[in-house]
Specification:
4-stranded mixed β-sheet, Glutaredoxin, about 35% helix, globular, about 130 residues, alpha+beta, single chain
């Protein structure tokens, strides 16, 4: 059985599935959240394993302008975008393999896939603006 902290081998995305601007994985967290504190090193390790994806850690209290009106009820909440469209926004188990599988499945389905909706798109655009994309 694989440890929840163990990372699967990165699977490079299909070239056609990587749109201009590249993939983003944004963790919406809070400094007071113990789960987020435990997740942070795994998130950073996953970022090193997937250099083709831009990983951002956003504290929704320090960067409240990024979260906007989004009501984050469960931490960590992840926003995944293909560089142009938000593809996923929601809570995610704080385990690196879960995020790795989500990234892989979204990258595979990106061609013609539906986005995550207007609220997710607005948050992604604020992340891009705030983090210099």
């Amino acid at each position: 059985m694989q440890s929840p902290a163990a990372l699967p081998e990165p699977t490079p995305p299909h070239p056609a599935a990587t749109p201009p601007g590249g993939w983003w994985a944004v963790c919406l967290c809070a400094a007071w959240c113990g789960t987020c504190g435990v997740y942070r090193p795994l998130f950073d390790e996953l970022a090193r394993a997937h250099p083709e994806v831009r990983f951002e850690w956003v504290d929704i209290e320090d960067d409240s302008d990024i979260a906007g009106d989004l009501d984050v009820e469960t931490f960590p909440t992840l926003l995944i975008a293909d560089g142009q469209r938000a593809m996923f926004l929601g809570p995610l188990l704080p385990q690196a393999p879960v995020l790795a599988r989500l990234l892989t499945s979204l990258q595979a389905a990106a061609l013609g896939g539906a986005g995550a909706g207007g609220e997710a798109q607005a948050v992604f655009e604020r992340v891009q603006a705030a983090r210099g994309a």
